[in-house]
Specification:
globular, single chain, mainly alpha, 16 helices
Length: 411
């Protein structure tokens, strides 16, 4: 996930030979957004709304900096699909580089398998740290990438047609097993408190959602009831509070495959304008297709269970973001501004781990040495923004120190 891609040099007409700096920028942008906690904008917006309840600006900020409760898409929802998509783009470059270095296919497959295992166990470790026992959960982004990474590798260097068919099979298959699952869904009026679905929440978020896609009453939840209770747990698994199931990794492979296709496109010896055009068209078509499936009632856009329509819709946004960054950074060569992003992107695993484990400790330490009011330098109503930004900068400085010393942690 954090490997810096470098395109291999091939004969003219096959691939380009420049570093894909736009991918570094994309990775760093997402990592900074995550590590800085969205700059505390969601909590800051809540405080500003208390001061001015009629502020549509802050209501919009608060809405976009939090996850959608069930259906729909907000800016904050795009973090995980961006990770998945970038894994595919990066794989197209990293294994091409390994191939140029003389690595055999078996050696590269072995590396992919090891990476999968490490990512899964790292995800479990981060979810368990601070707990009383191991938290055997596989819904976080590292576990999801790890569970699908080997499968993704198997489609590297396959034809575009093969990759597209594989993605279609994964998405259509996911849709079929969900809609054919003989579940009764949730009574929208009564809710289902036994699986964490309150009546008022169900009435607000589930009226127009088919029973196959109800929170904690779908196939994914049924699989987890069996799967997760096979592991030693201090308490029997009953439900995931956010409604995230383990089998999300299956349609997520399609998201990574779409990224792989885009990575292979960017390696082709075509003009930058041609590549940008393809990415823009693909992005717009994916957005339209995902929205159409949602509005037609065929498949709702639900990030938490990675519905096929979500996989398609979110990929549309990823293609547009990559097209814009590629145009600015790699085509126009306007890339000096990306340095702060590259610092983080070069050690994304380090930044990810710090952001998940060290925020409370860093916050307490900063207040101890710099004063209890350090996070109120802009006023009490801006404390969340100041806190998230200052702690995030502390993490960035650590990554910068590692960057200057060419120390990079890779999985």
């Amino acid at each position: 996930m954090n490997e810096i891609p470098q395109a291999e040099t091939q004969p003219s007409g096959t691939t380009v030979s420049e570093r894909l700096k736009s991918l570094d920028a994309y990775r760093g942008l997402i990592m900074i957004t995550l590590a800085f906690g969205g700059f505390g904008l969601a909590s800051t917006a809540g405080l500003q709304i208390e001061i001015n309840p009629e502020s549509q600006f802050w209501k919009t900020i608060q809405n976009q900096c939090t996850h959608a409760q069930w259906t729909g898409c907000r800016c904050w929802d795009m973090i995980q699909p961006s990770f998945m998509f970038m894994v595919g783009v990066s794989l197209a470059y990293s294994y091409a580089k390994r191939r140029k270095m003389g690595h055999s296919y078996v050696r590269m497959l072995s590396h992919a398998c090891r990476r999968s295992i490490v990512l899964v166990f790292l995800g479990v470790f981060l979810s368990s740290n601070g707990g009383r026992s191991i938290n055997w959960t596989f819904a976080n982004v590292l576990c999801q990438i790890g569970l699908g990474y080997c499968f993704l590798f198997l489609f590297w260097r396959r034809s575009l047609r093969t990759q597209a068919i594989a993605a279609a099979v994964l998405l259509i298959g996911t849709w079929l097993v969900y809609v054919l699952y003989p579940g009764t869904g949730i009574d929208v009026q009564a809710g289902a408190p036994d699986v964490g679905v309150a009546a008022d929440w169900a009435q607000e978020h589930l009226p127009d959602v088919g029973k196959a896609w109800h929170k904690n009453a779908n196939l994914g939840h049924a699989v987890d009831l069996w799967l997760l209770n096979q592991f030693p747990q201090t308490e029997t698994f009953v439900f995931n509070r956010g409604g995230y199931p383990t089998i999300n990794f299956i349609p997520s492979i399609a998201t990574m495959l779409f990224g792989l296709m885009c990575g292979e496109l960017l390696r082709l010896d075509r003009t930058g304008k041609q590549k940008i055009k393809v990415l823009l068209i693909a992005g717009i078509c994916a957005l339209a297709a995902g929205q159409l499936l949602h509005l037609a009632g065929i498949c709702p856009i639900v990030k938490r269970i990675w519905t096929p329509s979500w996989a398609i819709f979110s990929t549309g946004w990823c293609c547009l973001i990559l097209a814009i960054l590629y145009g600015i950074v790699d085509v126009l060569k306007f890339h000096r501004w990306t340095f702060p992003l590259a610092v983080v992107g070069s050690n994304s695993i380090v930044m990810y781990c710090m952001s998940h484990q060290l925020k409370p400790w860093v916050g307490t330490t900063l207040r101890m040495y710099m004063g209890r009011d350090i996070f109120q330098i802009l006023g009490e109503s801006w404390e969340p923004l100041a806190r998230s930004t200052i702690i995030g900068l502390a993490f960035w400085l650590i990554c910068y120190w590692l960057y200057r010393r060419k120390m990079f942690l890779r999985v």
